[in-house]
From TrEMBL:
Pfam annotation, one family: Glycos_transf_1
CDD domains, alphabetized: GT4_PimA-like (cd03801)
Residue ranges annotated for the Glycosyltransferase subfamily 4-like N-terminal domain, each copy included: 17-177
Top-level lineage group: Bacteria
Alphabetized UniProt keyword annotations: Transferase
Name used for this protein in its record: Glycosyltransferase
UniProt GO molecular function: glycosyltransferase activity
Length: 370
């Protein structure tokens, strides 16, 4: 009989914006197909068009969710946990610290729980005191009660050891697919849609929330005077004062293009033809957008936060977090540089390797470890 695994903590797959969502969309089809696992990903109804569906061998189940940014993840995770208990699944794989709140409940009902720690979300500026308390509690519960814990960077592994004495965590990186470019006529069509030309623009990809630091990039672009456009790919899940102010400022700045969320061939086309990629974040887990930029061989500039530095790029790729003037000077130097070969960096971010490492953890539970 196949091992049954239920996944919670994501808005859903496929093609739903977000780092955890991209992670799940890449990982679980490989696990389902290569290792013959019975996997169900639980999604949040406001974000997906289905109640029940299937994606590349992975079952999809959408459950109701409130669209309150503080309560959405924990309340939906509670509903997903009750669903897992009712369905009698063998293993529950939880992603992110908000959903980690339900770990003790699942363990109380005899479920084996794997928890993947993606990011210290309580450091994000968008959260209020209550939300930060819930997120910290979710991290604490997950680290204390999960059967197995996965961390996605060596920085996070060391931190969890220091904070909670959890010294048995598994270091499994995020991954990136080999660059898959659409046909040239498709690329040309997508570029024309936004009045772009190859190598004629700087790109940033991310949610329009404070921790992504896109306002810092916008300020740097405004003061740099470089003869390039700036393409901001993304938006906010829920309109906020920050996101609305960012979009208003972008629309008033010459050369700035807002595309909204992109996916599939359109995202690949716009991403791959950029001159330079910038990641100005104040907080990250292990940024998939940065890995994707590297897969397209783009010159990259990133803030010097620990999560970004965990990729171990040359020092000249990093700027002091929040320093728009330093970023502006780096933009002036970086544009028009030749493509970069990141093959050696990307070897450890192979999704097939990541799937094998994750499967080994599923197997280690072996229906015995409690």
């Amino acid at each position: 009989m196949k091992k049954s695994i239920l996944v919670l903590g994501t808005r859903g797959i496929p093609n739903i914006p977000g780092g955890v969502e991209s992670h799940c969309q890449s990982l679980y089809p490989i696990l389902a197909q290569k290792y013959d696992l019975d996997i169900t990903v639980v999604a949040r109804k406001p974000y997906v068009p289905y109640t029940e569906s299937e994606y590349q061998g992975v079952k999809l189940k959408a459950l109701p969710a409130v669209t309150n940014k503080s309560l959405e993840a924990p309340l939906h995770s509670l509903l997903a946990a009750l669903y897992a208990i009712k369905q009698g699944v063998d293993i529950v794989h939880i992603h992110a610290i908000g959903p980690g709140l339900v770990t003790p409940i699942l363990r109380l009902f005899g479920k084996k729980v794997i928890f993947t720690h993606h990011s210290q979300n309580y450091d994000h500026q968008k959260w209020g005191k209550l939300a930060k308390f819930i997120l910290r509690l979710g991290e604490k519960f997950a680290m204390k009660y999960a059967s197995e814990v996965i961390v996605i960077s060596d920085f996070m592994q060391n931190l969890m050891s220091e904070k909670y004495g959890r010294n048995d965590t598994h270091l499994i990186f995020n991954g990136v697919h080999s660059a898959q470019l659409p046909q040239q006529d498709k690329i040309a069509g997508y570029l024309a849609k936004y009045d772009l030309k190859p190598r004629d623009y700087i790109i940033a990809v991310g949610r329009f929330s404070q921790e992504k630091g896109l306002n810092v990039l916008l300020e740097a672009f405004q003061s740099s005077g470089i003869n390039k456009k700036l393409v901001l790919v993304g938006d906010s899940d829920h309109p906020t004062e920050y996101s609305e102010k960012l979009k208003a400022s972008a629309k008033q700045t010459a050369g700035v293009i807002l595309t909204g969320f992109l996916s599939g061939d359109e995202l690949s086309s716009i991403f791959s033809q950029a001159d330079t990629f910038v990641l100005p974040s104040f907080s990250e887990g292990l940024p998939i957008a940065l890995l994707e930029a590297m897969s397209f061989s783009l010159p990259v500039i990133a803030s010097d936060i620990p999560a970004n530095k965990a990729v171990h790029l040359p020092n000249e790729c990093y700027f002091p977090c929040g320093d728009s003037q330093k970023l502006a000077s780096m933009l002036m130097v970086s544009v028009n540089h030749s493509r970069v070969n990141y093959d050696e960096y990307l070897k450890k971010y192979d999704w097939n390797v990541i799937a094998e490492q994750t499967y080994d953890i599923f197997s280690s539970l072996s229906f015995e470890k409690r």
